Every structure is written in structure tokens, then in C-alpha cells.
């Protein structure tokens, strides 16, 4: 929550990810420009999203208690999805390492990942906020929804399929 008066901005944190429920940060508004305040807010949000636990209490992505399978840890490009809409004519990418990072058409995204022998679960994604024209904007929404709906993965050669309950949702190929 962000509250302001004429001289001061107060940020209230209520996030388990930051272990700061009920804490606040005071920033003297007169000393900082709007860009600096937004930068501080984004830095705090990024720190919270990478704080060592996913929002639902899962171990940190890539930690020793949650190692990412090595056959997943590489760069992928989307080639198919289960949605009836046509894929946009822009690359949609997924880089798997200690979490997920990629480009969803015109914005970049990142988030925590919990993956095992055949399980694949993406946590809350953070993203840049570039205003994208349709059909790319609609495609980004669809892609992020499908990515966060996955619970399983399988790899055959250079193809990665993500899905849920035995149904394929997204298919990627290794990025060249």
C-alpha cells in the first residue's frame, strides 16, 4: 500500500515473501524525484519476489532442497500453445535456471520455479510494463496464464512440453 501526504511517502509491506508483514518504510518525498521513488519501490518489490521462498512457502528455486533438473536448465522458444489463438509473429522465450526468465512478446518476465522429476510449477511472475499493441498484448496474457497453469513437464530431444493433468499447454524448442 502507498500513502502520501505533502512531504512524505509511506510504503506499507504486507507480504510473507519479505517477512515484513505490517512493517513500513518512510521516504522523504521532497528529497527524491518521482523516478527515484518508483525505482526504490521496484527494487523493494524485486527483493521481495526473490527472497528465498515462493509466495506459497515453497523452497527457493534452485536451492539444494529444490534443485532444477539439468535437462530443463536452458533457453527455450515457444512454438505451440493449447489456446485457439494464433501465436504472435514475435518470439516468446523461456530461460530456466534458478527460476524462470523470458520475453512474453514485448515484455520481459521473471519468477520462481519449483521443478522436479516431472513436476513444474511457476510462482508469481513479475514483468515489465510496456504497453503492447494487439495481438501481442493478448498473446502475452495468454502465455503467462498458461505458463502459470502448468504442473508437469516432459522433454523429448530438443522439445519441451509443459502441461497439467496430462494435457499439453505449451511446447518449446531449444533456442539456437
Based on secondary structure, the structural category is: alpha+beta
Helix content: 10-25%
User: What string, H for helix and E for strand, traces the elements in order?
Assistant: EEEHEEEEEEEHEEE
Average pLDDT over all residues: 74
- Count of beta strands: 13
Spatial strand sequence of the major β-sheet: 10-7-6-5-4-13-12-11
Low-confidence stretches: 1-64
The CATH architecture of the largest domain can be named as Beta Barrel
What do we call the CATH topology of the largest domain? Lipocalin
Main beta-sheet strand count, sense and barrel state: 8 strands, antiparallel
- Span between N and C termini? 43 Å
The percentage of residues in β strands lies in 35-45%
- Give the CATH level 1 class of the largest domain: Mainly Beta
How many DSSP H or I helices? 2
Q: How many distinct folded domains?
A: 2
Description of the molecule:
This protein has two domains: 2-49, no CATH class; 75-174, Lipocalin (Beta Barrel), CATH 2.40.128.270. Helix content is 17%, strand content 36%. The protein is built from two helices and 13 strands. It has helices spanning 34-49, 136-149; strands at 2-4, 8-13, 23-28, 75-81, 93-97, 99-103, 108-111, 113-115, 120-122, 126-127, 152-156, 159-164, 167-174. The strands form three sheets. It has an eight-stranded antiparallel β-sheet with strand order 10-7-6-5-4-13-12-11, covered by helices on one side. The longest helix has 16 residues, at 34-49. The chain is globular and about 40 Å long. The N and C termini lie far apart (43 Å).
Amino acid at each position: 500500500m502507498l500513502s502520501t501526504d505533502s512531504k512524505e511517502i509511506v510504503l506499507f509491506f504486507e507480504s510473507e515473501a519479505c517477512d515484513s508483514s505490517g512493517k513500513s518504510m518512510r521516504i522523504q518525498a521532497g528529497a527524491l524525484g518521482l523516478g527515484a521513488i518508483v525505482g526504490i519501490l521496484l527494487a523493494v518489490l524485486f527483493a521481495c519476489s526473490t527472497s528465498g521462498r515462493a509466495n506459497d512457502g515453497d523452497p527457493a528455486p534452485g536451492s539444494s532442497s529444490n534443485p532444477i533438473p539439468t535437462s530443463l536448465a536452458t533457453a527455450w522458444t515457444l512454438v505451440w500453445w493449447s489456446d485457439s489463438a494464433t501465436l504472435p509473429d514475435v518470439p516468446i522465450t523461456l530461460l530456466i535456471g534458478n527460476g524462470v526468465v523470458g520475453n512474453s512478446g514485448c515484455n520481459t518476465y521473471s519468477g520462481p520455479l519449483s521443478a522436479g522429476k516431472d513436476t513444474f510449477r511457476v510462482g508469481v511472475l513479475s514483468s515489465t510494463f510496456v504497453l503492447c499493441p494487439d495481438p501481442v498484448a493478448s498473446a502475452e496474457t495468454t502465455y503467462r496464464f498458461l505458463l502459470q497453469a502448468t504442473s508437469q513437464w516432459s522433454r523429448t530431444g530438443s522439445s519441451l512440453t509443459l502441461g497439467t493433468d496430462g494435457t499439453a499447454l505449451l511446447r518449446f524448442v531449444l533456442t539456437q
